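*** Protein under study ***
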Amino acid sequence: MASPLKTLGLAAAAYALLCAGAQAAFWRCELPGGVFMVSLPSVSLVSIHEYVVDGAARVTELTVGTNSAVVARFYYLEPMVPQSPAGGIGQTLVDKAQQQARDAAARTGMEAVWQKVVKNYPVTTHAHTVEYRLETLDQLKRVQKSLEDAWRANRETQFKVSDDDASDSNTSGN
């Protein structure tokens, strides 16, 4: 266990570096919906959890808390798929109707509402939250890993999420 004087000395050295103009490491994440950048020493928590919203969608959410009033949320939405009570032919009809709705949205260039971040003005727009929706659960988990790795090492990192999972990029500095 470090002595109190040694601990105090390390804290004083860190403070002196900050005062001397040493820059903090940042984590920068480019997403289809925007860019999120945070000073790693200001990150106070990273949490991932799952919940269901009004029985309509399953949400997996990555929350990033900082020492400011702003909270960042990255999430993946998965619509709850209606199930036919009869199964079989009934379920086939439900599945076909859902596919036709997706196809129609794709043809018109419009995404389904559940694929976008939706805010209720002024409640959610003034709630000090920054939100990003990811297209796959795997993308969300890669964002989490990049952030946690950078935070633990206090290492400058740039992470880019692309539409193609295989082309994500994660660049770390010294």
Helices lie at 4-19, 88-108, 137-153. The first strand starts at residue 26 and ends at 31. The CA atoms of residues 40 and 80 lie 35 Å apart. The first helix runs from residue 4 to 19.
